[in-house]
Specification:
This protein is of the alpha/beta class. It is 35% helix and 20% strand. It is built from 13 helices and 20 strands. It has helices spanning 33-44, 71-90, 105-118, 146-167, 175-189, 198-204, 207-213, 269-283, 329-339, 356-362, 375-388, 421-430, 464-477, and strands at residues 3-6, 16-20, 50-54, 57-63, 95-100, 136-140, 192-196, 221-227, 238-242, 244-248, 290-299, 311-313, 319-321, 347-352, 367-371, 392-394, 412-413, 437-441, 447-448, 458-459. The strands form 4 sheets. Strands 7, 8, 9, 10, 11, 14, 15, 16 and 18 form a 9-stranded mixed β-sheet that branches. A 6-stranded mixed β-sheet has the order 1-6-5-2-4-3, sandwiched between helices. Helix 8 (269-283) links the parallel strand 10 and strand 11 (290-299). The two termini are 33 Å apart.
Length: 478
């Protein structure tokens, strides 16, 4: 990962990333008059990044607004940081320096965040044509405290972790291996991790997770993570539940071709988001008690695969008629929500690449949001969403949607009708918890088929920054 170090003075000889809020501040940079004028002309044209190549030395400038901590302003800074990082990488630079000539810490941090997130690559399985990475960025920004940079690197590192997990193909990441990865991360960052094996899952009566696993040659895993610091501000934990389907064929309800399974290694992006959130929370030592649960398996049409028409008995005793084996994520999440009842959660979240309906509803620019939690919980989450620009579109959660889940032969069925599938999926999950509940459907945002600024092609790590910011604000609220 791109490393950030604090610098005590600007270094004129290095490639420079400059952030300012007044073009007059550009006089502080050691530049020839013609080069300075060239940059000023670009800024007057409204370019997010002005670029000048001075005999091979890159000087790049972003002008931010003088006031207003608005989501759009910070997002422009992130995108500028991403553009700067990509230009450095294209020029095969390994290091550069950021010089902040303005006093707003949020603008400097946002630009840095965009640069770090934009510099991400996944090259674990490449042996030739390896890109030359941007390795180091010295930061001269008097307005930033060392703790600001430490938190930024911890959160960006957690996003990298989530992206790496999602980008890892199923050939190298089974449910058991996902549990082992969580254990390594827990040991490194100081949160506890316990992984239930198949016999323990059977003893718990997790009928949804076991059913989805029936077609696989690999066993399931149920991952339990906990961060419980001394002096936590919450008497009851925040519980995070992430969908951990490491690969999804659709089971016997096989996904159609072409291209429908190509990216299905991403079906554990909800799990990766929760693991990444635990990494960042523990590394930053947030004074919030957090539990994260990840039910994990792959979904394949093997010899004993669960079939449409089967009736499953879930962890909480409810029976479910399976009418679509490609609606498997809600089955494993339902068991995890039921298991989570023992923690008496303050608020319980699910994050999942759950429905195509979510991405069809709002595309890739935001995640779908719904649930039963009090309005103050939604308000705090939306504040975090505005700050991180991981935007959320809240869906109605009217009781009438639950009518579509009634079954003739069981307590409920696992799919609703043809319309509002993202909402009926959320209503299904809500049947398995009695706690204040928030559901995030990240189907459109977790994995992209083309780059979107600092969100790279492939895994985006969505959810980590959002939930960390929510927990940080929850800690501050006390």
């Amino acid at each position: 990962m791109l490393q950030i170090t604090k610098s005590n003075r600007p270094a004129g000889a290095k490639d420079l990333l400059v952030v300012l809020n007044d073009t007059a501040q550009l006089r502080a940079v050691d530049l020839e008059r013609n080069d300075r004028q060239y940059l000023l002309e670009q800024l007057k044209d409204g370019r997010p990044v002005a670029v000048c190549d001075i005999s091979g030395r890159l000087v790049m400038v972003h002008q931010t607004a003088k006031a207003g901590d608005t989501p759009a302003r910070l997002e422009k800074a992130r995108r500028a940081g991403n553009e700067m990082a990509l230009k450095l990488i294209a020029a095969k630079r390994e290091e550069a320096q950021l010089v902040s000539l303005q006093a707003d810490a949020s603008a400097a941090l946002a630009l840095l965040e965009g640069a770090v997130l934009g510099a991400y690559t996944f090259t674990r399985h490449k042996t030739v044509d390896l890109p030359r990475p941007l390795k180091r960025l010295a930061v001269y920004a008097p307005e930033l405290k060392p703790a600001d940079l430490e938190e930024l690197m911890a959160v960006c590192g957690a996003v990298y972790t989530a992206r790496d997990l999602v980008n890892e193909p199923a050939s190298h990441l089974s449910a058991v291996q996902l549990g082992e990865a969580a254990q390594r991360l827990g040991k490194a960052q100081g949160f506890s991790v316990k992984v239930l094996n198949k016999k323990q899952i059977e003893a718990e009566g997790m009928g949804g997770l076991l059913a989805v696993n029936q077609g696989s040659i690999d066993p399931p895993a149920f991952i339990i993570m906990e961060w419980k610091p001394k002096g936590a501000v919450n008497n009851k934990p925040v519980v995070l539940v992430g969908k951990g389907v490491v690969y999804d064929t659709g089971g016997l309800s096989l996904k159609p071709t072409p291209n429908s399974m190509d990216a299905m290694k991403c079906d554990m992006a909800g799990a990766a988001a929760m693991i990444g959130t635990m990494v960042a929370t523990a590394q930053c030592k947030l004074p919030v008690h957090v539990v994260a649960l990840v039910p994990s398996t792959d979904n394949r049409p093997g010899g004993r695969a669960f079939a449409p028409g089967d009736v499953l008995r879930m962890h909480n005793g409810l029976t479910v008629e399976n009418l679509n084996s490609d609606a498997e994520g809600r089955l494993i999440l339902a068991d995890a929500l039921s298991y989570g009842e023992r923690y008496d959660a303050e608020t319980i979240f699910t994050a999942a690449t759950l429905t195509g309906a979510a991405s069809r509803a709002i595309g890739t620019q935001g995640s779908v949001l719904m649930g039963t939690a009090p309005e103050e919980d939604f308000a705090l989450l939306q504040q975090a969403a505005h700050h991180t620009f991981e935007r959320l579109a809240r869906m109605p959660f009217w009781e009438e949607y639950a009518e579509e889940l009634k079954s003739d032969i069981a307590d409920l069925k696992n799919i609703g009708g043809a319309l509002a599938g993202q909402i009926t999926a959320g209503k299904f999950l809500a049947r398995f918890t009695t706690k204040p509940y928030i559901h995030l459907d990240i189907a459109g945002t977790a994995f992209l088929d083309k780059r979107d600024h600092y969100r790279p092609k492939g895994a985006t790590g969505v959810g980590v920054r959002l939930l960390f910011e929510y927990l940080k604000r929850r800690a501050a609220a006390k």
